[in-house]
Amino acid sequence: MPLQRSQIWEYMDVIVLIAALLLTTWLALKKRSRQGLVWMSVFSLAYFGFFREGCICSVGSVQNVALSLFNQSYSIPFTALLFFMIPLIFALISGRVFCAGVCPLGAIQELTGYKPVRLPKAVESVLAAVPFIYLALAILFAALESQFIICRYDPFVGIFRLDAPYTMIIFGALLLISGIFINRPYCRYLCPYGVLLNIFSRFSRRHLTITPAECTNCRLCENVCPYDAILPSDMGLSSEEPEKSRKKLFLYLLLIPVFAVAGALIFRNLGPALAGIRQEVRLAREIRMEIETGTEAVSKDAVAFKEAGKTEDELFAEELMIIERFRKASPWAGVFLGLSLGFSLVALTVRTTRTEYVPHRGKCYSCGRCFKYCPVEVKKPS
Fold it and tell me: Which is more confidently placed, 248 or 5?
């Protein structure tokens, strides 16, 4: 945990966050400066990363919000709520500018991505589902007062604080090394906050554009985005038969409730296993194993339990109560994942005619890597 800071410094962090988002928005949408966005990443890494030691970050604030929504005993700090909401508001206004140069987790990866390669679409599709699962579990565990897994398994916070278990240091280092070739692996395949930014950015009022003026469809930018976030012009492509497209859309709409119910059932059955994240449940299972096998429990928790004088019946009753809470709450995580899968399939059937190359508003990180590949220049008035 970082050292406690005064309230003034916490609000200073919010001011810096807003200023950084405004400047990044200007650099991405108006100035169209890739170099400026890189320098913003350097600043954010220095301030929000090493100086602020990665806390509080917008990514982890998801858990604070979940805990406050489902537990009256917890009052979320106002600054934590602001860190959660402000990047989402900017995503609605100008796309994922938070990812472009403000998020320290994204910044440290952006600065190491030198030789990007593109993964096969099948692999990309499978890995892209992981953040949805991570988000569902993070909200579930936070809401049930179990653990803040986003913070606990943050791969870069140990680098920011120069202190962490060696396993997390190795994990972060491996991500940075792999990020040389697979840009932003954490952002693309793990970040739970990125799921929310993806959704909000799809409805953004304005967004970064690949070309500063009218696109000439020269195709120079077609394969340059390491995040596969460029949608090509489809004027020359043959469209699917309307009748076939409507049938596919109708089928996927019918499957949405099926996926939601299936997800709920799967996660309800997973409830007892997920409850194992609680220390009380693990302790009860260890004590029960000791009773059944006649072996001596050796963990520190088991020794402390015996010294505390708490009865086994009380421990087992607490275990059952926690498991029941997980049985009731886990299906909602399954519903969320089922709905996400269903709506993703529906989105694949909805096509709009594009006359030029445009960024995918949900997947685009507004990093500006595509700027230099566009030969179009804005004509200045003489």
Answer: 248
